[in-house]
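pinging the channel bc i need a second pair of eyes. not urgent but kinda urgent?? the chain im working w is below, pasted from the shared doc
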Amino acid sequence: MNAFSDLSMKSDEVLRVELEEFRRQHRDLDEAISALQAMGSGDPLTIKRLKKQKLQLKDRIAYIEDRLYPDIIA
């Protein structure tokens, strides 16, 4: 089952909690990637995987934000 379709069944309160958790995970991944790159000893494949996870989280965050705060044209 699609992870995004699971979100449609959740309440706004649950989505807000998940949104904060996903944002925290996104920041943690960003810091980990930066640290690996700064050390220069980071495996390129590992960095690539972390960047992919970070991008997936970004997509999920955007989806939840769109659901919680839709653009309303007045």
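so The chain has three helices and no strands. and The radius of gyration is 15 Å. — does that match what u expected or am i reading it wrong
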